[in-house]
Fold this sequence. Notes:
A 7-stranded parallel sheet has the order 3-2-1-4-5-6-11, with helices on both faces. Strands 7-10 form a two-stranded parallel ribbon. Strands 8-13 form a two-stranded parallel sheet. Helix 4 (84-108) links the parallel strand 4 and strand 5 (113-119). 40% of the residues lie in helices and 18% in strands. It is globular, with a radius of gyration of 19 Å. The protein has a domain at 2-174 and 210-233 and 282-291: 3-Layer(aba) Sandwich (Rossmann fold), CATH 3.40.50.720. The protein is an alpha/beta fold. This is NAD(P)-dependent oxidoreductase.
Amino acid sequence: MKIFIAGATGAVGLPxxxxxxxxxxxxxxxxxxxxxxxxxxxxxxxxxxxxxxxPKAVHRAIEAAAPDVVIDxxxxxxxxxxxxxxxxxxxxxxxxxxxxxxxxxxxxxxxxRFIMQSRGFYLEAPAGALADETAKLRYDAPGEIGESxxxxxxxxDRVLASPSLDGVVLRYGFFYxxxxxxxxxxxxxxxxxxxxxxxxxxxNGVWSFVHIDDAIAATVASLDAEPGIYNVVDDDPLPVxxxxxxxxxxxxxxxxxxxxxxxxxKSAGEEAVYYHTRLTGASNGRAKANLGLAPRPLLWxxx
Length: 303
């Protein structure tokens, strides 16, 4: 197939390009000028320079590539995970405006399939249950998280309701593994070894992770799978009170300290408290059945 990837030099985009090319696909990666373009060229991908916020530039880029499939892997994430909430407004805008530009161009130019990156960790589910693909994103989440979920939820609805596109929504868990924050030499490990890790309150928020290579394999499979929503997550959703101490042991870091909800609200804000006390895990049965997802066990679960 001819495949156009927006965000082709990111944590998902670049390994996705690397996986697609040996399968015989023609890949065009949309990126900004810089070293990322050289990485795409050395893999054998075509490079398209376009600003996601410029609808005419996006239209021209997709028109030139003439793809069968457009994949949106755009993100605006900081190098330092401590800055995630500060960066979230830019990321939200990227999904709201950049995503709208991509899907509009794809529809106008007769693209067959549109695949978008979504979130598998902001989903509604009853206490003690896992969220399946019918779950909605948590529009009532506080602060910047709520702005993000409402924007991404509207984007999901737009993709799935398109009359001309086969829409696929991939709700990924938190990425771990090479090139991510969650690896032995990654930013989260560095925080842990510096004694900066903390469990807020009961740490009962349940997180779903996914190894980056498993996420890539599922994304490749989504090229010709049944359209719809897929939770691309592993089999080991765990509360923060379990996975964070195990992660610390895995990277030879001290035990995370405990912080009360009241103190965390003052020092870290309501979004941080939400991450540690309100998130729910997701189920992956549909991705296993339709995408062949075979996620490896969480690498630090038994550390």
